[in-house]
Amino acid sequence: MKQEFIFLGPPACGKGTQTSKLSEFLGYPHIDTGSLLRAEIARETEEGKIAKFHIDQGHLVPLDLVATIIAKRLSQDDCNDGYVLDGYPRSMEQAEKLVEINNHVDREQNVSFKAIYFDIDTELLIDRIVNRQSCPKCGEIYNKKFKPSKVENICNKCNVPLKTRDDDNAEIARARFDTYFEQTAPLIDFYKEKGVLYKIDANGSIDEVWKRLLNVVES
To answer: Among 38, 52, 163, 176, which one carries the catalytic annotation?
Structure first.
């Protein structure tokens, strides 16, 4: 049976870390929307050129263009048995697009689709965000309090200095939560009504959350 996973939850709730682990555990591709867009731009594909134009203008990448890029990726052979999709959908419009995409790429396959919601305390998220660091080379995410690098401020994999985003501060984080709850939180009800929503407690250590995630994945 083909397995498809999407993830819901506010910024810094731990989705990136857990989806990477799940992808490796299951052997399915980890499809991160942001990385996918950057790859299209780097390869200078037609979609990448259009996306870059909008980004350079300070605009959001159009809904249909993002859907086209997602559809192209989910149609590739390595997604035949399943995928772990991170960062999409983020709105009701995108959720409806994903239904169309899956109807096209799944064809006659028997499919298990799960939308996994990371439920977490907002104040803990603020603490995570202000201490977050990332590697400019490989994109690995660290946290000075919860997931520090072995050598302070140096990536474990690439041995290069870690970066802190300018917008990783408490004020901007709260504004991002407001946007999330306005645009993305309604997806919780959308998938709940479809009977495919699974909620896990995302408070706790990476290992604790991983065990809870595995319980849902294997249920």
So the answer is: 176
